[in-house]
Amino acid sequence: MQESTSGGAVKHPEKDGLESFIYDDKIVRMFAWATMIWGIVAFLVGVIIATELAFPDAGLGISFLSFGRLRPLHTNAAIFAFAGNGIFAAIYYSTQRLCKARMYSDLLSKLHFWGWQFIILCAALTLPFGITQGKEYAELEWPIDLMIAVVWLVFFGGNFLMTLIHRRERHIYVALWFYIATIVTVTMLHVFNNLWVPAGLVYLVQYGEMPSAELALKSYPIYAGVQDALMQWWYGHNAVAFFLTTPFLGLMYYFLPKAAERPVFSYKLSIIHFWSLVFIYIWAGPHHLHYTALPEWASTVGMVFSVMLWMPSWGGMINGLMTLRGAWHRVATDPILKFFVVGVTFYGMSTFEGPLLSIKSVNSLSHYTDWTIAHVHAGVLGWNGFMTFGMLYWMMPRLFQTKLYSKKLCAAHFWFGTIGMVLYVLAIYAAGITQGLMWRAFDANGRLSYPDFIETVTVLIPMYWIRVVGGLLYLTGAIIGLYNMIMTWRDRPEKYEEVVHYAPALSKHAPDEPAAEVRLGANTALGVAGDKFLQGNWHRALERKPVKFTLWVLVAVAIGGIVEAIPMFMVSSNVPTISTVEPYTPLELAGRDIYIAEGCYNCHSQMIRPFMWETMRYGEYSKPGEFVYDRPFQWGSRRIGPDLAREGGLRTHLWHYRHFKNPADISENSIMPRYPWLLTGPVNFDEIRGRVDSMALLGVPYGDLLLEGKTVEHAKDQALVIAMELQDQGGPEAMETYDKKVIALIAYLQRMGTDISKTPPPVEAEVEADGEHEEVSP
Amino acid sequence: MRMTEIVSFLDLSIYPSVALVFFLAAFIAVIWNVMTKSKQEIEAAANIPLDDDMVFTPRVSIETNTETDSSTDSTIDKGASRA
A23 and B55: CB-CB below 8 Å? Predict the structure, then answer.
């Protein structure tokens, strides 16, 4: 049988040796619709929360509209719903054509589609109600995590890999390599960052019942503090790498040549791009934790690799832009190419800025400011958004088998999007750098120039309004896109034509590839083997063996993770113990869980960096040993409000009470939302047992508190003490407040960062504490 | 001796260098591999995306006649059989 030699099925004179197949475009249409619709939802929620920052009362004092709860919905919708469905549309369309095969199983394709939409629905039904793991971009709680694992790995990964195995094109095109890397690495990241103990199940096993849906969905990570932070940002950074970069590069390597009607500029460069990117990206995560309590060596590895990452990223960008060689005149008239050119350009800008931000000295300015927010929006709106829209517009006539409804509307979408994006990004860059410089400004007497945090917030409000306008423009563009898509769809044929394609099946061996020659006849066996190796057949073989290829990608991405993670988890000196740091009391633990549920970490950090301007503003810098009982860690990544690491004891209970009731009463220009529901919502004392028992299962020494009835008793006692103190300070009646959420949250806030200033116990007591019996501070 | 203690004895300051060596080795292998590929092979690979069919324009090169269309129906890979 004749084999394909020129990158495609050879025109075969007889049909006997050929297999016939039809591409499944229905699934691509489904993902394309989902992309457009979820994209609009993500942008709309983005506009809502942007408005809340400029005008805090926009949340109307309603719990599920508060910034802390909606921001995770926005990020998850943008990443997993919009970009996610976008890459699935791209992958299902291109994989079938690059493999000359229909997707392996229609059932798996459908399960993947509906499973993924169900996951998104679950996210929309949990995040606004405060059901969250409290780790950025990994907020979804454990049952949804399990669904993601099944849908992603089994339905999507399985279907994809089986399609590769049953393909009819010998060479696996580079776009597919990027898809393989995506599937393998996202699985690895998702699994390792979502290892938890479900508190509801612990309660169920212990007491034979499930007290509430809230506890049923609650989980605690097996990692604590510094280790949790390293794991989370290894995940967080690589979610950007392997969810928002590699699949979109695959998309670029397929759809850009299609739209430009010429092959990629350099296929050799694309191979180098792929392996360098995959190998380097995985190391870069710790750059999110510069100057935190993370050990210095890990931070340095993260920085060095991030700077190295600049090269392959720009290799990819240049490869993309140069693909348009000889077709640049068409960019002026073809809005699809416009989307792609701006998309790839934003990729270049973001991947230049990323390494820049990872340099420690730059990071000391940018971290916790809006600079990071501007950076990710340049990436997601520019790179992911525009590549997705470019792809959708290119596919629309092909999927709906008719002409695109309006090229003018397509161009309008492009301009709305571009102007919106530029407004957003420029305003927020300015906001970030302004605030960063204000935080670190000293006057001539060596005092902070802006000691009141709120001064560094009010100055940003005009830029926040520009962001709202920019976001609205981008949203408008997307709505135009949806309209264009609906109108194109309406003009579809009554029945879609299903073209039958023919291609020869692949033979087991590759007869068209010459075996390595024996060129060194008189040499040693080793020399001959080495010479054969250098002739490169091993990589050629790898390129056509999807399973082996996948395993090698796994090796490449696992090395970075293992080298960074193992020492972090193994070396005891990385997290020196502090003798005065003790577990949270049951009530404080419940309060901490409220802090997590309300998404406080979206605006407040809990990590004071060792800089003069930070220690003068917030107090002693944070130590790794302070976080050993923090599951999950809550260091945060953005200070829309001030750091809270040393909040404990700074203010009265009454201050906090009034502040939750209406922050503007305390601090006139505060942009923090009101939290009326915390003042009225009851604490479920009974289920605190499940929380404490789960922590104990993870090794937190709760000692006597685990005895029958002790947990609840301790929590109630502490709540009463705080409520009485609140009453004494002029607050409401203690009996009215002691069982409310706000008291638990105040208990936690008043504890934060106070342990290191306690007097260490005498030596004898320490020896005693080494035994089974350990005291818990009240 | 516990694993934690063993790992604690390691000098972690060499870690960035170890990482760099790993990367360089991989990078050189990839560059070598890419450079030894023939022009023909690279061109063939680069053209794969341009070689697939448009959805609604049947390939001219494939002799689809009505006679074989009906006969191939049973073997058409619609994926359903595997599902």
Answer: yes
Q: Are A663 and A670 in contact (CB under 8 A)?
A: yes
Report the DSSP pairing between strands A196-198 and A219-221.
Answer: antiparallel
B81 touches chain A (CB under 8 A): no
- Domain tally, chain B: 1
Question: ipTM of this model?
Answer: 0.73
Residue A518, CA distances (Å) to A300, A315, A386, A536, A589 in order: 46, 35, 50, 13, 70
CB-based contact, A5 to chain B, within 8 Å: yes
Residues in B closer than 8 angstroms to A399, CB to CB, are 55
Compute the distance between CA of residue A194 and CA of residue A242 in angstroms, rounded to an integer. 17
Residue-number span of the structural domain to which B8 is assigned: 3-74
Average pLDDT score over chain A = 89
**B19 Cβ under 8 Å from any chain A Cβ:** yes
Q: Could you say which residues from 48 to 77 on chain B have a Cβ atom under 8 Å away from some Cβ of chain A?
A: 48-59, 61-64, 68-69, 72, 75-77
User: For A484, left (φ over 0), alpha (ψ -120 to 50), or beta?
Assistant: alpha
User: Is residue B82 one of the residues assigned to a domain?
Assistant: no
Please tell me the pTM assigned to this model: 0.88
**Does residue A180 carry a pLDDT above 80?**
yes
- Does some domain include residue B68? yes
A777: contact with B, CB 8 A cutoff = no
**Is B79 a domain residue?**
no
Domain-located, residue B81: no
Delineate the domains of chain A, giving CATH numbers in brackets: 18-490 (1.20.210.10), 586-769 (1.10.760.10)
Q: Is the pLDDT of residue A219 over 80?
A: yes
- Alpha carbon distance A101, A165 (integer Å): 10
